[in-house]
Amino acid sequence: MVEPSAGATGAHVAADAHALSARVWTILAFVFSAACIFCGLGSWALLNPDEGRNAAVALEMQRAGAWLVPLYNGIPYLDKPAFYFRTVAISFSAFGHSEFAARLPSAIFGLALLAMVYAFCRRVYDSRTGVIAVAVLVTAPMFIGFARMVIFDMALALAVWASLFAAYVAEEESGAARRMWWAASALAAATATLIKGPVGFLVPAAVLLVLAIVDRRRGMIGRLFSPLNVAIFVALVLAWFVAVSLRRPDFPHYGVVEESLQRFTTAKYNRPGPFYYYLPVIAGFFFPWSALLPEAIVAGWRARARALAADRLFGVAAIVVVLFFSVSHSKLPQYVLPGVVALGKAAEFAALHMADEQTRVKGLRDRLEGALLQRIPNCFVNGDLNDRLPNTCNIAFEYVEGEGILLHLTRAGIAASSGSACTSGSLEPSHVLRAMNIPFTAAHGSIRFSLSRDNVPEDVDRVIEVMPGILEKLRELSPFWSNADKSGKEFKPVYA
Hints:
Elements (H helix, E strand, L loop, with lengths): L5 H33 L11 H15 L6 E2 L2 E2 L6 H13 L3 H26 L2 H12 L2 H6 L6 H20 L2 H22 L2 H16 L3 H7 L2 H21 L3 H15 L12 H8 L7 H10 L6 H18 L10 H39 L3 E3 L10 E6 L4 H10 L5 E2 L12 H5 L4 H4 L2 E5 L6 H21 L19
Antiparallel strand pairs: 1-2, 3-4, 4-6, 5-6
Helix pairs in contact: 1-4, 1-5, 2-3, 3-4, 4-5, 4-7, 5-16, 7-8, 7-9, 7-16, 8-9, 8-11, 9-10, 9-15, 14-16, 15-16, 16-20, 17-20
């Protein structure tokens, strides 16, 4: 019997520890999410007008035993399909008439959407990506707010993303598995339509059409509108539409023309807004993660050649959803909730990219400092070596003028600065360095190098190449250098 090697055993232990850590973080993420969504769910009164009206419709449907046509004050309410109202009515039957019971379906839909996002990210990326995506979404005001309200949009977002995720998985499969996943996508789109009308299939269809064009998948469009998918969608939606129309002959005109077409194309419902309406909405209701979106856009564009198909799905979904509702003449903040899911992934990408980029830039900085300190005598790093920004280094070169160094660096095509950041135009040494007890002969020759995501190792190599020669030339002209202590003693400032 062959005993496992120590290395193999260690690898297994490390893998088990990593898996355990991933499970722990996943459990914590969902415990935190459940607490955010469910705690105090019924602790305040229903908000007018939407929560009060939606709960009242559900209550009347429950009392009347109605399943097909919503009722409001005893009159058929044809503004929205009955699906969401029935979920609230079922909650009333199970838990009684309360604010908690009214909001419970939205809360369940919200938690289910988080679970679905996690499962998809774990499948396509890894568990860490899924956990971060969940944490971003559940701490976004728009997501957590509508997960705790009696409103359609969280249920709609769940169905829309179920359709998109299923379509994505279908394209990764083949044969019977592909047909099954496409059928699931069609079923989810039909459910979204039964929740809030035509927008339920228009949004996922628009996203998938644009994605097929972006990915240059000509066959995907045919699979999207395959006879099986169309049959599943029509069987569910048409059955509901015909049944409601038989009971209410005015429904086709009111539901399709007035509530859908006119709501989208006219200002009849007095919910106008400029084309950029959703920019401040996203900035405010997706804060603090909206602060990462500019970085996500820049980083995503730079990495577009390496983007995964799932990255393009999220990117296309965010753009299409926001543009779709931006051109509408009827605007409300919650309309772009399906897009917020994609923005949550974008913020997660930006956060991870910033962390990776910070590590990369820090490596460039450390490489620059190490080489300069090794090759040039009588120089040292100003500041704490650990607690500082990862992209900035300030090095003191004794017995030379900083302005002279900058002149030579400029001629070499290298940008740097001297003095303090707020007084970089002054010829006086930085008052900050002087307060740190840096000797006058060193403070005068202090140079600050700032690196960014645009810098590459070749940039650092160029600085390392030219700096020794520059210092040698300038020190030959310095009256202080001939009498300087060149022993290489390390300077110890007062803060060390």
